[in-house]
Design goal:
95 residues, alpha+beta, three-stranded antiparallel β-sheet
Length: 95
């Protein structure tokens, strides 16, 4: 997904969404990160603008620690509630 006019757009299918950043934050959490800084999120999500990533982190209502360049946002997600889309689907067995 790439940021295009304040929305994220898939370069292949052109699907646009405004909340893809939440999935990126959840992916970061699943990779073991419990805190994330603006620069880490910018690098992870490939967004160039410091102010855009700051606005997305603030909009996500994450608990904030520190001030200015030392600000970290706590990634606190509930597996049952926030990762519902990752549940296994029943697979048919091929014999």
């Amino acid at each position: 997904m790439k940021m295009v006019k304040k929305r994220f757009e898939c370069p292949q299918c052109k699907t646009r969404t405004s909340d893809a950043y939440l999935t990126a934050l959840k992916d970061s959490f699943l990779l073991g990160k419990r805190n994330i800084t603006n620069s880490e999120f910018r690098e992870f999500s490939e967004i160039q603008s410091h102010s855009t990533t700051r606005d997305l982190l603030v909009r996500s209502n994450l608990k904030k620690e520190g001030t200015k360049r030392y600000t970290k946002y706590q990634l606190c997600f509930d597996y049952k509630r926030d990762f519902d889309y990752l549940k296994r689907r029943k697979r048919s067995k091929k014999l």
